[in-house]
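Cross-check.
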Amino acid sequence: MKILVTGASGFIGQILVAALADQDLVLWSRTQASSGSNAEYRASGDLRDTAWWRNTELPGGVNVVIHLAEPVKNQLSDEAVTSIISSHCGFLVNACAKAQLVIYPNTAYRYDRRVGSGNRQYLRIKTEVARALSADHRFANPVIHPLVDSNGALSRLIKIQGQWPYLNPFCAFDARLPVLTTRELVAFFRDQIQSSYLLHDDWFSADPTIADLMASPGRRDWTMPSEIFKLVLRPMANTSTGSLLLEGRNIQ
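Predicted model, tokenized:
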């Protein structure tokens, strides 16, 4: 099985590269991706370089493409966003024409009641690319929810939690936030690769409350102070982080 992973030096990319070391891997990323004896690395172009992504040939014999390359979530110009969307679409069209399965994960931001400006652009990119490729039977666009056993996707919440060393101020927060573990993320991708089953739905292993995610054995759960803290935060529900803490994700 020959697998091309773009964005291989990113957070999820590094997890998959390590987990799929027994496969024949081709790794594309802008920075050097660690690779084993079965892996081949190539420096990729910036996603704003539409010509690179549209014209660069896929390596011969690739069976599966896992497209993880994305821009850093900083504020981008409208021109840059348009170029990135064009790069994604051009690359994915070519990938679907040559590979048996192409996986382009969507983002859980689509379920946030409030989305910050940088994440809003990221969501727009993901949404427009998914819409453009949706009719292709080789294209899979599952929503990969945040990984709970890491400081990656949940880093902002964990940073807030760390500022309260003795009291758990989130024990009364009942907003729900679906999450994955690294082990189940790897199992999901292995299942997709081995079965070529096209999953277009959400992928998460648990649906805990914010209180569950923020539980710490070194702190006491005092419900009343937590309820007061939640009440104080209520005016912040119109911000992206405040909405996530108070309302969770609105998965239908």
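Residues 111 and 250 are 5 Å apart (CA to CA). The chain has a mean pLDDT of 89. Passed to J.P. for a second look.
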